[in-house]
Amino acid sequence: MDSALKNALIEIVGEDNVTDQLIDMVSYSYDSSEHSHRPDCAVWPQNTQQVSQVLKFANENNLSVIPRGAGTGLSGMCVPIKGGIVLDLNRMNQIISISIEDRIAIVQPGVVYADLEKALAPYGFLFPPDPGSGSVCTLGGNVATNAGGVKGAKYGTTRDYVLGLEVVLADGGIMRTGARTMKCVSGFDLTKLMVGSEGMLGVVTEITLKINPKPTARSTTVASFPDLENAGRAVTQIMYSGIIPSVLEIMDRYTIHCINQNTDLNLPEVDAMLLIETDGYTKEETDYQMAKVIEVLKANNPDQIKQAADDAEAASLWKGRKSAYAVLARIKTHFVLEDVTVPMGNIAALLKGIGRLAEKYDLQIATFGHAGDGNLHPQILYDGYNPDEVHRTEKAVAELFQLTIELNGTLTGEHGIGLAKAPFMHLEHDQNAMAMMRAVKKAFDPKNILNPGKMALEVN
Amino acid sequence: MDSALKNALIEIVGEDNVTDQLIDMVSYSYDSSEHSHRPDCAVWPQNTQQVSQVLKFANENNLSVIPRGAGTGLSGMCVPIKGGIVLDLNRMNQIISISIEDRIAIVQPGVVYADLEKALAPYGFLFPPDPGSGSVCTLGGNVATNAGGVKGAKYGTTRDYVLGLEVVLADGGIMRTGARTMKCVSGFDLTKLMVGSEGMLGVVTEITLKINPKPTARSTTVASFPDLENAGRAVTQIMYSGIIPSVLEIMDRYTIHCINQNTDLNLPEVDAMLLIETDGYTKEETDYQMAKVIEVLKANNPDQIKQAADDAEAASLWKGRKSAYAVLARIKTHFVLEDVTVPMGNIAALLKGIGRLAEKYDLQIATFGHAGDGNLHPQILYDGYNPDEVHRTEKAVAELFQLTIELNGTLTGEHGIGLAKAPFMHLEHDQNAMAMMRAVKKAFDPKNILNPGKMALEVN
After folding, report:
1. Which residue from A minimizes the CA distance to B217?
2. What pLDDT is recorded for position B460?
3. Which residues, including other chains, have CB under 8 Å from residue B160's CB and lie 6 or more apart?
4. Does some domain include residue B398?
5. Which residue from A18, A29, A80, B228 could staple onto A39, CB 3.0 to 4.6 Å apart?
6. Pair (A79, A114) in one structural domain
7. Within this chain, do residues B16 and B84 fall inside the same structural domain, yes or no?
8. Is A246:A269 a contact under the CB 8 Å cutoff?
9. Could B175 and A213 be called an inter-chain contact, meaning their C-beta atoms sit closer than 8 Å?
């Protein structure tokens, strides 16, 4: 690393908060995807002013800046593919305020999701998105990626809860967006534009979140279906029943099989399993909803329906689903976890298509995900040291995206574009939409210093 | 109107769909605010291609284009302040599809809110925002203004339900944004940016909406408070109770007084009245929530608490609130209906401040609104033919905005900026935020042909 550059950064954040040590450069070279590239250095800013000065300096010197939270992203979003300065926001980790009467929490970007959860629990409140990586991921990362989770169908994703932001712009300017109010239609909605922009439009240094009271009752049921078609039809019919379950998860046969091989859960190895939860304030309410759901399940030839009698039984029903990702991740040397999303009516078709791809490319693909909002996670397990298998995996992924788009779906329901899906942006977005995204990027970051090389925005 | 221009438009949309008749120009000169200015002509496009051709032509010839729905906006948003072509989208009024299994409705912009409501009712579904003008306003207008209504606290506003759009850009290019899926994090969120952009970034020609099942049970209660402070504290404490009422409306003494003078409702003339509704699937659920709310109300020295025993009684409790706007509108020759919004904890302070302004400027100000999301509607009644009263009204409005910002609020919770609030944008938004809004406008509409002169974006 250039010593003049290093000294300039040290002047801004202090000696202890700049590194170009090899071990750090390696740590910052990857996230939770298969992509990696080393940065030139990393800094840990302590406050907004330091972020502002780092960006001003970087912009003047045409240096890339890659904002980073916990690095749990699955699409290579914070991989410094063009080198540059990693801006690690983990040390800006204060919960600034919680106001129950105003129904908001104001936090710095480095606050871990679970820490906010803990702070809100005594009030009986929560920030609902509940991403799978909640125990380690940061709220700044949640905002940058518009993180979602198992409760998206009923409670939406991060974007639905971000009311306002403090943002450092590419040139170091500091901007406030949105408001501390539940509603705001004052000017263009720069807040929602920032959410999910993957660190490419600015660096979020403060977040105002809407929070929700925690439901006090729930009902949980698991149903297994020997036939995929029937499970898909059940999902569709649940929508017609007028019930929006707080959770409506699906696991396919191969996922169940792998869980059984690696745990002692002994799940029935059927085509598909649905895990359903309804929530509310009273047990009458959640049972009423669940009765309607069970009626639908019964009408679609289930193998088994198991309703949890209490929280302990519910937890045991959840075990299989919760272990899926980790169990599957250990089976082969490598895996890709996709998050293609389709209208709910097309879930069965997507699952069938994934089965065809597994056969065609002789791959092990386990699929689970959020049937309630159409977001499936096909996890392709492969041997990364076998070039042929790598090649087949790539072909299968490309075809999976093609199929998803044909089914009126989107490349990504919650993992984002980053590097992994950049080559496929053109499948989903027309030329005019791509041009407008580029125009927005240019308006916010004329020199293209913020997390460059992502989202296919540099190709014209 | 220039005949070459007129002929060009006729060539695009046909003779029956272009007008420059005086009566039409007068009709298109105003909305539901006090602003007005005549356009040069108006066209009724029948489809997206025609919208595209009109915009292409206008852009090439530097003509302003003002998209328009039902004209129910309260901020002069669709007033053609610089003349130009009004693009009336009312004839693009088809509900393209409703898919309950996918939980979406796809509509053209000219569909009236109530018509979609009617179409969804047989399925037991609805599009929740429920704006006050729902019987006449169009969904395109709802999108352009991010319309909200009485259920915002629990169900959010239009933006929370718009999944995807077809947009005609300033140069006539057609772009699709978002997806037909519940979740999508593919690229920058151009969809949410378009929502609430007041026709300044593009013309929406197709809307994909998320829809909700209609709650099947509700409980309704009215409480009156002799003291404003207590009503404000009750609102705050309801938040702490963990209940988010589906409705939490407030009316002040003067509103109640005016309603009594103009109806036979005989409401108790107290400092403040709260109207509360809880909803869910079962009566047990809604009564459980209401019991918690009533506990809070009782702890704050109410004058009276009245719980509706059935739907008929609920309807009678609603009567007062529903008549407020119309009753107040008739009292003087003119009125301004504001929609300042503050964090809920500051509602009492805002109401008190409004009282002070009424006294200071010797004005009649009646305030009602959505206490559950902090959105109040002070309605200033004045004689528009009395220059002194007009002047005092203007002073009071300016001070109201100043007060709102001091209380961490926003100029507008649901009515938008348009012309009415443009002079106050700088109170709420810092220079960097204003610069980014201008940059976004420039990226989308380099020649500034789309609804120019609004939102204070032309001042540098």
Report:
1. A285
2. 52
3. A156, A160, B210
4. yes
5. A80
6. no
7. yes
8. no
9. no
- Number of Cα atoms under 13 Å in the Cβ half of residue B245: 32
pTM: 0.97
From B213, B244, B279, give the residue that closes a domain.
B213
**Cα A284 to Cα B281: distance, rounded to the nearest angstrom:** 9
pLDDT at site A287:
97
Residues of A in contact with B180 (CB under 8 A): 343, 408-409
Q: What tokens were used for A137?
A: 């991921």
How far is the alpha carbon of A178 from chain B, nearest alpha carbon, in Å?
A: 9
Which of A145, A188, A206, A444 is most worth mutating to test chain B (most B CB atoms within 10 A of its CB)? Answer: A188
Q: Is residue A454 part of a domain?
A: no
* Domain ranges, residue B191: 95-213
Per residue in B356-370, pLDDT (tens digit) is 999 999 999 999 999
Write out the two tokens for A277.
């939860």
- Asked if B77 and B104 sit in the same domain, the reply is no
Instruction: Decide which of B88, B122, B140 is a domain's last residue.
Output: B88
Looking at residue A323, its pLDDT comes to: 86
Whether A180 sits inside 8 A of B103 (CB atoms) is: no
Q: Does residue A408 lie in a domain region? A: yes
> Chain B residue with minimal CA distance to A197?
B188
Question: What secondary structure does DSSP assign to A263-287, as a single string?
Answer: SS------SEEEEEEEEESSHHHHH
Block means of pLDDT (10 residues each) for chain A, 460 residues, are 92 97 97 96 98 98 98 97 98 98 98 98 97 96 96 95 98 98 97 98 98 97 93 94 96 92 87 96 98 98 93 86 86 93 95 96 95 95 95 97 98 96 97 98 98 88
Asked whether this complex has an ipTM greater than 0.95, the answer is: yes
Residues of chain B with pLDDT under 50: none
The answer to the question of residue B460 being in a domain is no
- End-to-end alpha carbon distance in chain B: 32
Which of B99, B409, B440 has the CB atom closest to A443's CB atom? B440
* Residue reference for tokens 């602003």: B35
Alpha-carbon dihedral sign for residues A457, A458, A459, A460: positive
Same domain, B65 and B141: no
Q: What total of structural domains would you count in chain B?
A: 4
Q: pLDDT at position A56, please?
A: 98
Residues B272, B177 within the same domain:
no
The predicted pLDDT at position B311 comes to 87
* Rounded Cα–Cα distance for residues A379 and A257 (Å): 14
Asked if the Cβ–Cβ distance from A186 to B239 is below 8 Å, we say no
**Same domain, yes or no, for A170 and A204?**
yes
CATH number for the domain including B243? 3.30.70.2190
Cα separations in angstroms, B261 against B257, B264, B420: 6, 8, 30
- Each residue of B286-318: pLDDT tens digit? 999 999 999 999 999 999 999 998 888 888 888
Size of interface A-B (CB pairs under 8 A): 310
Return the residue of B nearest to A199 by Cα.
Answer: B188
Q: Provide DSSP, A119-168.
A: HHGGGTEE-TT--TTTTT-BHHHHHHHT---TTHHHH--GGGGEEEEEEE
Residue pLDDT, tens place only, B165-194: 999 999 999 999 999 999 999 999 999 999
CATH number where B100 lies? 3.30.465.10
Q: Tell whether B56 and B69 lie within a shared domain.
A: yes
- The pLDDT of residue B459 is 67
Residues A199 and A241 in one domain: no
